[in-house]
Amino acid sequence: MTPSKPIDETQSRRWRLVLGASAEPELGGAGPAADAAMDRALSALYNADEQSAAEKRSAGLGGSAPKVARWLGDIRTYFPSTVVEVLQRDAVQRLDLTQLLLEPELLEAVEPDVHLVGTLLSLNRAMPETTRETARTVVEKVVREIERRIAARTVAAVSGALNRAARMSRPRLRDIDWDRTIRRNLAHYLPEHRTVVPERLVGYGRKARAVHRDVVLAIDQSGSMASSVVYASVFGAVLASMRSLRTSLVVFDTAVVDLTDRLADPVDVLFGTQLGGGTDINRAIAYCGQLITRPADTLFVLISDLYEGGIRDEMLRRIAAMRESGVQVVVLLALSDDGAPAYDHANAAALAGLGVPAFACTPDSFPDLLAVALDRGDVQAWAHANAGKS
């Protein structure tokens, strides 16, 4: 029998951190001071159920804000930010530390991320005034980071789509785009005259202050949609900053709240939401229908996992009526980086039968999706082509 290959020191250290104290007989102690500190931080989170009462008092996170604050400081010292975000999320879920997030000194020690913002928004109504400003600072930091990530691409993609839609087929002489006109009419080149006889002139889209498209965003604010609420609010604010669009944003559970007047600041939008509760998609669609005054020039984006607590058949009828009136309808099961969401497959299939595909989309892909939808392109084909990316 061939003897097993010995584990090198690096592998041994990694396995020791993964397996915890129970692996000491085979792999030895935690090693250097930094490894020991990482081991304590991981054990406090993942081995809490195995600790004795004395260990929990001395090393566990328990319900003590000072202990949690120290632990947050430790993990930020020894782990990269991507790992810190995972550890924080696990701590909130596994150890039920949600209430501790209402303490300002603890919030100041947390690494802000989208999931933390979602947790804070779910506590919005219970948040004391002493915590609200700190929470707002945390939320604002995440929002500004998302804006840096998506704003420029969104404006460029949407502007491109609107400019394409605005190009004129019978432009005046000064508005002719000669380069595009020649390329469009190369089939009509006359060799004997060495010239192109254009059958169709292509003009530049004249920049005007007119609103070219209306965009209505309806966002499901049930607890499972937290990340989508954050991203959609930021996108809504970016779109609202474009004068060529008229953007409306509503959030809903069993009630509908119109947050359009807060779109100047996505942080205000987010603090106007209340995550959790039931879902009445039908009621939300009915309200959004009242906002649509130019169906042929309107894009309606519903962001929901489609678990309907309202009247399902009426919801489907309203979507069908929107489509028939000329509204471009897009349904997103999620707008986040969280992967494939749980959703109501029956409702998604029913929407597909109406010609409205329902699919998840990442924030990085959403600007391109907006461009396709505003250009009245084939959204379903785009969704299939980008299935691996979104």
Automatic annotation (TrEMBL):
Xref: InterPro entries: LolB, Uncharacterised_CoxE, VWF_A, vWFA_dom_sf
SMART domains from the UniProt entry: VWA
SUPFAM superfamilies assigned to the protein according to its UniProt record, in alphabetical order: vWA-like (SSF53300)
Domain VWFA per the UniProt entry, residue ranges: 212-371
Phylogenetic lineage: Bacteria, Bacillati, Actinomycetota, Actinomycetes, Mycobacteriales
Pfam family, one: VWA_CoxE
Protein name in UniProt: VWA domain containing CoxE-like protein
PANTHER family assigned to the protein according to its UniProt record, in alphabetical order: OUTER MEMBRANE LOLAB LIPOPROTEIN INSERTION APPARATUS, OUTER-MEMBRANE LIPOPROTEIN LOLB
Source domain of life: Bacteria
